[in-house]
Amino acid sequence: NGLLAGKNVLVMGVANDRSIAWAIAQSLAAQGARLAFTYENERVEERVRKLAETIPGSLFLQCNVTVDEEIESLAVQLKESFGVLHGLVHSIAFAKTEELDGMFVDTSRAGFALAHDISAYSLAAVAQRVYPLMTEGGSIMTMTYLGAERALRNYNVMGVAKAALEASVRYLAADLGPHNIRVNAVSAGPIRTLAAKGIKDFNSILRQVEEKSPLRKTTEAAEVGDTAMFLLSHLSRGITGEIIYVDNGYNIVG
Ligand code: 0WD
């Protein structure tokens, strides 16, 4: 039972128990989804394995999204274990810390390419290999941030990569809609995670959100988790190609 009973969902981007992907996994599991977690490399393997083991019946697979062969092997393993896939949660981003400080104008060619490869292209790279497993229809969701639309201090190349990610959501939604596969993004307010550690002056960003957002509080990962659950469920069947804000309203006033 649950809104996601009988659904198989791939969750990419758990690094630790503060990861947004982990909060999403909790919300999905609470509604009866069967989950497959991926971890990037040996560095995070044990930590992610321990978390995955707390959700009975879940799979645990390695995949660095910069390597095509690893994504292909992930798709093969999912087909063997799940057969049919119903959902994909993409909660992955990366930029070198030196690109997240100072001015965007100083971005290096390599830093720009890496941020776009991991934070934007990876959505299409994974979708192209797993959508053939979504034979009963499916839902794909990714994570974005307000810096895609506004020039926010220190977000720099990541904002440009998020803009590419948001455009990718629309193109993927147009491509995959005829297969009854929906593609959306959640634009979350700032949440203190490992990835947020790379962003300079993160505390002052949180303080601003607390003061200005209509609901006068910062975003909790569980709020994102529940919206992701909605996006993966039948309840959101009429929604595709959208960017949904889970930010306590900050984007309408900030
Ligand atoms: O305020 C925030 N934390 C917000 C985050 C606000 C709005 C959006 N987001 C987005 C992030 O940009 C990202 O897309 O949410 C997503 C998840 O971020 P998170 O939960 O804040 O951060 P974290 O727990 O660090 O998870 C991101 C993970 C990586 O962690 P580390 O810290 O080890 O880089 O993305 C994964 C990795 O697990 N990742 C990769 N996975 C596979 N292959 C790769 C890769 N090459 N690179 C990073």
UniProtKB/TrEMBL annotation:
GO-annotated molecular function: oxidoreductase activity
UniProt key word NAD: yes
Residues of the signal peptide: none
The reaction(s) this protein catalyses: a 2,3-saturated acyl-[ACP] + NAD(+) = a (2E)-enoyl-[ACP] + NADH + H(+)
TM segment ranges: none
Entries under Pfam families matching the protein: adh_short_C2
Coiled coil: none
Biological pathway: Lipid metabolism
Sorted UniProt keywords: Fatty acid biosynthesis, Fatty acid metabolism, Lipid biosynthesis, Lipid metabolism, NAD, Oxidoreductase
Top-rank EC class of the record's enzyme: oxidoreductase
EC numbers for this chain: 1.3.1.9
Classification via CDD domains: ENR_SDR
InterPro entries: Enoyl-ACP_Rdtase_NADH, NAD(P)-bd_dom_sf, SDR_fam
NCBIfam families, per database record: PRK08594.1
Family: Belongs to the short-chain dehydrogenases/reductases (SDR) family. FabI subfamily.
Protein's name according to its UniProt entry: Enoyl-[acyl-carrier-protein] reductase [NADH]
Organism: Paenibacillus lignilyticus
High-level lineage: Bacteria, Bacillati, Bacillota, Bacilli, Bacillales
